[in-house]
Amino acid sequence: MTDKTSDQADDIERALVARLKAGDGRAIDMLMQRHATRLRMLARRMLGRNDEGDDLVQDAFIALWRQADRLDPERGAIGAWLTRVVVNRAIDRARRARFLRFIGLDSAPDTADDLPDPEQTASARSEIAAVRADLEALPPRQRAAILLAADDEASTASIAEALGLSVGAAEQLLVRARRALRLAAMKRAGAVEAKGKAEPS
């Protein structure tokens, strides 16, 4: 892209942001035409799933619409802003998925289509909410240890240092926390199965 073409593109982006700030819904459509394909490819590569990548791009444009009054094209290109939003949200999703795998709850429903089944989506959200409740129910040190291990991929030695414990004590916290979370998950699974058997067919 030549300097002249780049300047023209910047001028167009600035004009679109001004229209967006004024509440012109067509401006968001035009920005989507300019950036959505690239962002979608980026999100899909980061997540490895088409449906989740599309969700992230949609979220990014919703954020753009909601935060339009705070945008300043002079401080950076809108394309770069959108890219940061997609990358940050992809990282957050990957961390959540890694956490579920870490505690043995990686069986959140997958869908073959690009459009998730509403029942499966509701089930996945319910499972995540249940895991959060299980985490809150852990004693504080167990909760801190498991979150440090899952979110930061920290070594047991660094977890021990962060919590002011011996390595052995940190290992025991992790063992107890994982056991408690798995037990809670098994209880939920048993309750769902029992409910399914009790319901008339």
TrEMBL record:
Keyword match Ribosomal protein: no
Report the SUPFAM superfamilies cross-referenced here: Sigma2 domain of RNA polymerase sigma factors, Sigma3 and sigma4 domains of RNA polymerase sigma factors
Query: What are the alphabetically sorted keywords of the record?
Result: DNA-binding, Sigma factor, Transcription, Transcription regulation
Q: Which domain of life is it from?
A: Bacteria
Q: Is Transcription given among the entry's keywords? A: yes
Q: Which residues form the RNA polymerase sigma factor 70 region 4 type domain?
A: 135-181
Q: Identify the residues that the record assigns to the RNA polymerase sigma-70 region domain, covering every copy.
A: 31-98
> Per UniProt, what is one Pfam family of this protein?
Sigma70_r2
Query: What family is it from?
Result: Belongs to the sigma-70 factor family. ECF subfamily.
NCBIfam families per record: sigma70-ECF
Question: In its UniProt entry, what is this protein called?
Answer: RNA polymerase sigma-70 factor (ECF subfamily)
Native source species: Kaistia geumhonensis
